Amino acid sequence: MSAPTPASDRPLAVVTGASSGIGAATARALAADGWHPVLGARRVERLQEVADEVGGTALALDVTDADSVAAFVGSVGDLVTADRPLRGLVNNAGGAKGTETVLEADEEKWRWMWESNVLGTLRVTKGLLPLLIDSGDGHVVTITSIAGLEVYDGGSGYTSAKHAEGALHRTLRGELLGQPVRVTEIAPGAVETEFSLVRFAGDEDRAAKVYEGLEPLTAGDVAEVVAFAMSRPSHVNLDTIVLKPRAQATGMRFHRET
Ligand code: NAP
């Protein structure tokens, strides 16, 4: 793992779930915009590779484990100096498991989705908010999903977790009024990452079918939007941004070329 002293005096931005997909792409986009990304995830070798590539700092993080989050928050605090405040937090770690109906619901999968998407976002946000407030110009970005805005058959575990994560995030908007912290929810549709591989327990054929016959968003497409929101002047708060592939109308409704 990186030594806990970044070489730069660029403002710090924590990105959770930065070992792949949207999180890794966000670390790249923020580094290109002059941030020093602090990357957190469980697969530390992959995390370190991304950190080395972008000149950031990799720190082990399991958002489902309160002790891991506490250690992570402590290490982020050690990186902060007067010239190098923590100004950004991108709550991105999370994902989906399974597509069981409510009748067939698997409690273990539900627990994983609620722990990683909801309680994980709560733990990290709660831990880092004091530093973001102290910075005098903080920003919390949470990657929810269109699954946080609608429901679909077989998606109740994930849609309920993303609805809850969105509710937690949007509550901050009021609670932080008067504080120097902006709050942006980004709700993507289909993005081709490891998301479907995780959802379908490593079944590559099933994962590939999700994106068959259409051009999905890339992780970079979402990362550009995150970086755009975080690069607006301090008084401009982009509250909610929904982005989907042109070929997607809702969570379940796509146009596919045959
Ligand atoms: P991904 O490639 O599977 O990335 C998920 C990231 O989350 C990985 O870096 C993973 O790292 C991390 N993560 C998972 N559990 C974690 C834990 N307990 N502690 C710390 N990190 C954890 O998928 P992605 O599409 O980029 O997903 C990123 C976010 O976007 C998720 O919140 C997802 O729900 C949301 N989203 C995705 C899509 C889509 O279609 N892809 C659409 C809308 C929203 P480790 O495994 O190394 O810990």
UniProtKB/TrEMBL annotation:
InterPro entries hit by this protein: NAD(P)-bd_dom_sf (IPR036291), SDR_fam (IPR002347)
Keyword field contains Lyase: no
One Pfam match: adh_short
Stretches that traverse the bilayer: none
Keyword tags: Oxidoreductase
Keyword Glycoprotein belongs to the record: no
Species assigned in the record: Actinomycetospora chlora
Name by which UniProt lists this protein: SDR family oxidoreductase
Entry superkingdom: Bacteria
Family statement: Belongs to the short-chain dehydrogenases/reductases (SDR) family.
